[in-house]
Write a structure and sequence with these properties.
Blueprint (H helix, E strand, L loop, with lengths): L10 E6 L5 E8 L2 E10 L4 E7 L2 E9 L6 E7 L2 E9 L5 E7 L2 E9 L5 E7 L2 E9 L5 E7 L2 E9 L5 E7 L2 E9 L5 E7 L2 E2 L5 E4 L4 E5 L4 E8 L9 E2 L2 E9 L9 E6 L8 E2 L5 E5 L1 E2 L8 H7 L28 H7 L24 H5 L8 E3 L4 E9 L6 E5 L4 H8 L31 E9 L13 E8 L7 H4 L7
Parallel strand pairs: 19-31
Antiparallel strand pairs: 1-2, 2-3, 3-4, 4-5, 5-6, 6-7, 7-8, 8-9, 9-10, 10-11, 11-12, 12-13, 13-14, 14-15, 15-16, 16-17, 16-21, 18-20, 20-28, 22-25, 22-27, 22-30, 23-29, 24-25, 26-28, 30-31
């Protein structure tokens, strides 16, 4: 046709391109696609929307068969640009700003796993400031660089933990603070997602062997330390629990008891210590308990007991033993204890059958008290007014052959003592059996400090710390061989 004499088509029509791959159906103006129309592709893809002077321009909807993506929004020169909604064939959805078909500017992206990011994009990636809700329930708010968390940000974990600080390559890196769901806080330097100076052990300060007079209280000061021995002052909030054990086989220089044994029904088995001997669990009295003076404790003890003679003196280690006497008034107020009432010792064992409620050992069988735990503050904790409790009913003590108690028993005409069984009663009287005592036996014990933080900080509890403890008879100095015996620094 002569283009000068034939007018170009306008209106509504259908045009199939010579290569048969495209077909257009819609409005025309001056021979060009103009207005509303639909461009079909041979593979099933299509665009339906506005055209201007032959170009895809304005609002429309595009579906691509090869990717499964469907876009609805603004177009410029055939490409998604402006504001729109992209639904991805592989799963997920994006609503926000685009440029030349890529995410650019502000938008909301939901990935195939249902995770939601809202914030800034650049070159199709999360870039700038944004918030993200992860599938795990964790929430992040802060800086992003090319799809990774980098800069400053806050991560709130689903378990309640919160990290605030610097990021690099999508992990904690730089200065930051973590408030763990267990109550532990770490504030300091992080490297590749891990604390740069974490606590790795519990250290009990003071002499390697604590020497305390029978009936006296003592204090333990504890530090969380790093590998280099420095205090881990970046940490606070760990929960430490103090407990004790009595040496299974006693050294003769310290005690007339040869060894201790738990009743078969007690279910107690000796546990290993780093000192080369085994121990049985032993109860502690409440650290803040009101206790009668040492003299009163001795007066209540059976005078026939070989371990209740004499009067207790002060703790030999003045730096470790202090705080004897009554509970301060403010502590009594906090514990709601009436004036003049004795605060019972604590032990988790049930009362032994046949022991009266007024008996000292019965008073020791109360539910565990919460004051056996301390929270760490800047790497330090202190356990004050520690007192070993009364011998539990399930613990049997066997006298050493040739002991002074055995000799006294033989002079009185009694048979050679085979064992002492504190907390047990026989229907047949036996002078050689030691009656239940009102104080701890002299001998060798251990004190344990355990990390009982729940849940464990960063999934790991610190190793238990041990310290040897010698309970000395009243008025008897420590044997020189034991005074000079070094213990491991644990």
């Amino acid at each position: 046709m002569d283009p000068e004499s034939t007018p170009l088509p306008s209106g509504y029509g259908v045009y199939t391109y010579p290569n048969s791959f495209f077909q257009y159906e819609g409005e025309w103006k001056g021979g060009k696609k103009h207005g509303h129309g639909k461009l079909l592709f041979k593979d099933g893809s299509y665009y339906e929307g506005e055209f201007v002077d032959g170009e895809i321009m304005g609002r429309g909807c595009q579906h691509l068969t090869w990717s499964g993506n469907t876009y609805s929004g603004q177009f410029v020169l055939g490409e998604p640009q402006g504001h729109g909604v992209m639904t991805y064939g592989a799963g997920g959805r994006y609503e926000g700003e685009l440029c030349r078909g890529l995410r650019e500017g502000q938008g909301v992206l939901v990935d195939p796993d249902g995770q939601v990011y809202q914030g800034s994009f650049h070159d199709n990636k999360r870039h700038g400031w944004g918030q993200m809700l992860f599938r795990s329930g964790d929430e992040y708010e802060g800086d992003w660089i090319r799809d990774g968390r980098q800069g400053h940000g806050v991560l709130r974990f689903a378990d309640g933990s919160t990290y605030k600080g610097q990021w690099h390559s999508d992990v904690f890196s730089g200065l930051g603070s973590l408030a763990h769901c267990s109550g532990v806080t770490y504030c300091g330097l992080w490297i590749n997602g891990h604390p740069a100076a974490p606590a790795t052990r519990i250290a009990i300060l003071g002499p390697e062997v604590l020497e305390v007079a029978r009936g006296s209280a003592f204090t333990l000061r504890v530090q969380l330390q790093r590998d280099n021995g420095e205090t881990a002052d970046c940490e606070s909030g760990r929960v430490l629990r103090i407990s004790a054990g009595v040496r299974h086989v006693q050294p003769p220089a310290l005690s007339e008891i040869s060894f201790f044994k738990a009743d078969e029904g007690h279910g107690e088995k000796p546990f290993e210590t780093p000192f080369g001997f085994r121990c049985l669990s032993y109860p502690l009295a409440c650290p803040t308990s009101l206790r009668p003076g040492p003299r009163a404790a001795v007066e209540r003890a059976d005078t026939n007991s070989p371990l209740s003679q004499g009067e207790p003196g002060p703790a030999l280690d003045s730096g470790a033993a202090h705080g004897q006497g009554d509970t301060p008034g403010h502590l009594r107020d906090e514990m709601k204890v009436p004036p003049g009432e004795i605060i019972p010792a604590c032990d988790s064992s049930p009362p032994a059958a046949g022991i009266p409620a007024s008996h000292p050992q019965a008073r020791a069988q109360e539910p565990p008290c919460p004051v056996d735990r301390r929270h760490v503050t800047r790497g330090c904790a202190e356990f004050t007014d520690i007192v070993l409790g009364l011998p539990p009913p399930g613990l049997q003590a066997f006298l050493a052959l040739g002991s002074s108690s055995q000799a006294d028993s033989q002079q009185e005409g009694g048979p050679c003592p085979a064992k002492t069984a504190p907390g047990t009663h026989s229907s047949r009287p036996d002078r050689t059996a030691v009656e239940p005592v009102a104080a701890v036996y002299p001998g060798e014990y251990v004190v344990l400090i355990q990390d009982v933080t729940t849940p464990p900080f960063l999934g790991r509890a610190l190793p238990t710390a041990f310290r040897r403890l010698h309970i000395l008879p009243e008025g008897r100095p420590a044997p020189p061989s034991l005074e000079q015996t070094p213990g491991p620094s644990l």
